[in-house]
Amino acid sequence: MMWRVARSAAASLRQSRRLSTAIPGPCMVHKRGADILHDPWFNKDTGFPITERDRLGLRGLLPPRVISFEQQYDRFMESYRSLEKNTQGQSYNVVSLAKWRILNRLHDRNETLYYRVLMDNIKDFAPIIYTPTVGLVCQNYSGLFRRPRGMYFSAKDKGEMMSMIYNWPSHQVDMIVLTDGSRILGLGDLGVQGIGIPIGKLDMYVAAAGINPQRILPVMLDVGTNNQKLLEDRLYLGLRQPRLEGEEYLAIVDEFMEAVHARWPKAIVQFEDFQMKWAFETLERYRKRFCMFNDDIQGTAGVALAGLLGTVRAQGRPLTDFADQKIVVVGAGSAGLGVLKMALQAVSRMTGPEADPHFFLLDKDGLITKERKCVDPAAAPFAKSQGEIAELGLSEGASLLDVVKKVKPHVLLGLSGVGGIFSEEVLKAMRESDSIKPAIFAMSNPTANAECTAIEAFQHAGDKIVFASGSPFDNVDLGDGKIGHVNQANNMYLFPGIGLGSLLAGARIITDGMLQAASECLASYMTDEEIQRGVLYPSIDSIRDITAEVGAAVLRSAVAEEVAEGHGEVGPRDLSHMSKDETIRYVKENMWFPIYSPLVHEK
Ligand SMILES: NC(=O)c1ccc[n+]([C@@H]2O[C@H](COP(=O)([O-])OP(=O)(O)OC[C@H]3O[C@@H](n4cnc5c(N)ncnc54)[C@H](O)[C@@H]3O)[C@@H](O)[C@H]2O)c1
Ligand SMILES: O=C(O)C[C@H](O)C(=O)O
Ligand SMILES: [Mg+2]
């Protein structure tokens, strides 16, 4: 019965979308005149029709000619293309920051146009608003700062957060991305300047998942910084004090989480770029109480696992052979351990709880074994025993080169944050891999921190490899008309769908099952033909489509695990009656799309 209501609501939505170019639904605005022009959410610049200018007190505040949305779009793209032309030959940093500035100015002025150009040109613009340029933006944030975006909660706000949260102007917030700036990409502690990451991630939420930009909130939790250079920088915009530690630190995060939950109980909080100790600890602390997840641990794991399963298919082997794959993971931080934990769960599902996978884990001190004095508890399950490695001629702390030479792994996966660590010698050693298609995943960000470049990988490890990197690289010309395909193994293929699916499910919490469903959905998205060509992930051009599918998979899993409480008028029973296709349709119909709506003034 209820589902019929939902269906008819969905049908009317579909109807209004079809008609949307002609008569989009109205949007209530409580402002008039110049206040509207200065609000990027409502502003249409020269696109305000004459009648609207009359109704909203805008007449005379704009040049007389009305410019259509399409013309505004073309005008922006022309200025962007001429900026590209005019900056040719200049350094990467100068060009990237110039591109970021022009996009950011549009973002500050007219959100509808901004998100439309971002969505339509995601392949060109993701590398600017997301990795790698976002890293450069964070490094230079205090100098680039012009207008605030998002919220800042600092150690000085202790005891005030419950009231501060009400300073945010939107009545409803669906998606929050939170960082404390302690491990920004592979760039280390950037303190308050890390706010660029939540902003970039939420831009991806809007572009890929169609989360309404009025309902997103980027948040910086400024508990100080241990970056001496920033502490000494007179322009640094954050607290000039060492990071809070221990209970003092947790008290700040607790207070923030309580404040968010009090105002928006259904908001989803994505933890991003926290240093390892807090990444794991906060995940365990909050995941049963709030609807939250840690993208670096859980989103990354799902994307990596999907890619790893793809490499098994690429070898023409059944998926169950994943249990026999030899995988060397370089980097035992939040990302590397997240990947291994999820990979272990996958092997256990295939072989039973006594699973004995062939995983080798290295950190800055080399191969991690049980001989190691202090092994992090999260890394302990992956520490090798002397017996296991002695026959390979390896011992505690063995170097990466030694490990690759002796193990002959099917997969070499880097999440170390150390640029170039897959040296020529290491890559050449991968030629002796036991796989017919050795896989090299250089997943660290941004580009300069990638363990190797795409060209280096194909040049040294050979044409047969499958390659993936966290930040984008161009495909590699292998000669004779052959192309070495470059995949982008980045959590952007999952986090928007995890957030969207959890939101539309009205999930109480985000379970391992929901994350597994997301990963499996991504893994099965690729056809055999694509996989054979070394294409493990979809093109970023189809990110909205894959996100809808992932969102639906997450939603269905939330229903199956009985953590779905429903969203808006669609209750859990309605959700449970939806077929897979209906769920995908429901998700797609709930994705926001940038279009000018008629503004109606309401006092
Ligand atoms: N592609 C993606 O989607 C994705 C997702 C998450 C993180 N990352 C990237 O992964 C990197 C690591 O992130 P993290 O959160 O795990 O960081 P982290 O600081 O928690 O862990 C880094 C790990 O690398 C190890 N390491 C450092 N130097 C090393 C060396 N020379 N050899 C071997 N290991 C070394 C450290 O000991 C540590 O175990 C970052 O660059 C981040 O941008 C990428
Ligand atoms: O931000 C990214 O591009 C991926 C990931 O979350 C990272 O921390 O590197
Ligand atoms: Mg991250």
UniProtKB/TrEMBL annotation:
What note does UniProt attach to the cofactor annotation?
Divalent metal cations. Prefers magnesium or manganese.
Q: Could you say which residues bind a divalent metal cation here?
A: E272, D273, D296
Q: Which GO BP terms apply? A: malate metabolic process
For activity, the cofactor(s) needed are: Mn(2+); Mg(2+)
Entry GO CC: mitochondrial matrix
The residue ranges of the Malic enzyme N-terminal domain are 107-287
Active site, per annotation: Y130, K201
Q: Which residues cross the membrane?
A: none
Q: Which InterPro entries match?
A: Aminoacid_DH-like_N_sf, Malic_enzyme_CS, Malic_N_dom, Malic_N_dom_sf, Malic_NAD-bd, Malic_OxRdtase, NAD(P)-bd_dom_sf
Q: Which reaction does it catalyse?
A: (S)-malate + NAD(+) = pyruvate + CO2 + NADH
What is the first-listed, main subcellular location in coarse terms? mitochondrion
Q: Which residues form the Malic enzyme NAD-binding domain?
A: 297-559
User: What subcellular compartments does it reside in?
Assistant: Mitochondrion matrix
Which keywords fit this entry according to its UniProt record?
Metal-binding, Mitochondrion, NAD, Oxidoreductase, Transit peptide
Write out the residues that bind (S)-malate. R183, N445, N490
Q: Name one Pfam family in it.
A: Malic_M
Highest rank taxon of the organism: Eukaryota
**Metal-binding as UniProt keyword:** yes
Which GO molecular function terms does the record list?
A: malate dehydrogenase (decarboxylating) (NAD+) activity; metal ion binding; NAD binding; protein homodimerization activity
Similarity comment: family membership: Belongs to the malic enzymes family.
Q: How does it associate, per the subunit comment?
A: Heterodimer of two related subunits.
Indicate what this protein is called per its UniProt record: Malic enzyme
Origin organism is Erythranthe guttata
Organism classification: Eukaryota, Viridiplantae, Streptophyta, Embryophyta, Tracheophyta
